[in-house]
Amino acid sequence: MNSYVIFRRNAWCDEAALERAAGRSVQVCNEEMPERVRWLRTYVCEEDDGTLGSVCIFQAVDREALFEHARRSGIACDAVMPIVRTVTICEGLPR
Fold first, then answer.
1. Domain containing 61: what range?
2. Mean pLDDT, the chain, as a whole number?
3. Which of 19, 22, 31, 59 has the fewest CB within 10 Å, making it most exposed?
4. Considering its fold, how many domains does the chain have in total?
């Protein structure tokens, strides 16, 4: 599997809606697509208009699997981008 970032802008009106979506996402990952998609973590952001958006880190067999996961889960999927490298604060930064 490859690693990807998913951007979900203005996806939820409140925490309750986010929690419902997360539950459905886990269900789709674990029950419907376990060999194709793996959810690693999510960073939830407050958008300028007060809604919630997120940046999610997933592993998947390909981008199309992530769009399918979003469709099955009923959640937004504004952009999917492959992760080509991880830089940590301890490595790779110029001094």
1. 2-82
2. 93
3. 31
4. 1
